[in-house]
Every structure is written in C-alpha cells, then in structure tokens.
C-alpha cells in the first residue's frame, strides 16, 4: 500500500523539491494589460500614465503585438488622439514616438465598440515589437493634442501580447 508511514517523508521531500523548482522559474509574459482612469474625464497633458512591464530572459525571443486602449464618451470632440509614447528600457534608454490613434472613420463613426455613450478602442501601435533585453520596461502615455485638457477621455491603457517566436 502507498500510504505507509515510511513513504510520508519521501513524499514530503518530493513535494518540497517540486515547489522550490516552480518558485525559482521566472514568470513568462503571455499578455499584459493595464488601464488607467483619467481624473475628471479630462486628460491634462501633465497627467502622464505609465505602465511597468518585466520581461524575463526567455521572453526576449518573441515578437509582441502592442495596442493602446482608449475609452471615451460620445462627446469626445475629435476623430483621433495624438499621444507621445515613451519607452524606457532596462538600460535606461528612452525611446519616444508621437503616435496618432484613429478613433473614427471619415464619416465620424467610432471605430471601437460602444455601449450607450461610452466607446472603447484597442488601437494597434506595433505588431512586431521586440524586447531584446530582459528586465524592466516602462511605457508612458502623454496626450499630445492642441486642446488641453482633453475632455471626455475616461481611460487609457496598454496591452502587450506575445506573438510568434523570432529567429535570432
């Protein structure tokens, strides 16, 4: 019979070994998503949401798809949203990009999904991003429109999804 007293220490040792091996392995990134509420639904350009992401060594061999999430009211006055996106890499180098997010088509119809007067968009920023070095990355979003504050913006966010394995 398996449950004899002399097997209990052996089972405990095996369980302890398995738990310690599982605890030592760093987590892998499959999908990262975080959204930040804009205070008062008016995005002032001095309010710069940031998103911290940790890339494990085994995650550097993949391509990633990066989206910006935007949630706004129907009363949002523009068909687009310009943002400054800054990415700080583990070696503290900062990469800045001015990005236009198209939120509506030429007729003014919102591109995202909506319920009542609230619309949500997931806008592609990069579909073959590479995180070449393991470590901590910080993404920051600053609204870069002429109007300040930018009214009727409720939330902004970042979504990063692991894509295909890349050849090194």
Automatic annotation (TrEMBL):
Top-level lineage group: Bacteria
Keyword Signal tagged: yes
Pfam families: GldH_lipo
Signal peptide region: 1-25
Keyword field contains Lipoprotein: yes
PROSITE patterns listed in its UniProt record: PROKAR_LIPOPROTEIN (PS51257)
Keywords: Lipoprotein, Signal
Protein name: Gliding motility lipoprotein GldH
């Amino acid at each position: 019979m398996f449950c004899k007293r002399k097997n209990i220490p052996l089972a405990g040792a095996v369980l302890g070994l398995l738990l310690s091996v599982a605890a030592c392995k760093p987590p892998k990134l499959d999908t990262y998503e975080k959204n930040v509420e804009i205070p008062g639904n008016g995005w002032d350009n001095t309010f710069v949401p940031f998103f911290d992401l940790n890339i494990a060594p085994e995650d550097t061999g993949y391509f990633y798809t990066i989206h910006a999430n935007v949630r706004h009211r129907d009363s949002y006055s523009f068909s687009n949203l310009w943002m400054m996106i800054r990415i700080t890499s583990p070696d503290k180098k900062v990469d800045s990009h001015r990005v236009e997010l198209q939120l509506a088509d030429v007729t003014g119809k919102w591109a995202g999904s909506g319920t009542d007067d609230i619309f949500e968009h997931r806008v592609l920023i990069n579909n073959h991003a590479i995180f070449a070095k393991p470590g901590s990355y910080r993404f920051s979003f600053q609204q870069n429109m002429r109007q300040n504050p930018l009214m009727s913006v409720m939330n902004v966010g970042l979504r990063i999804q692991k894509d295909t394995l890349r050849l090194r």
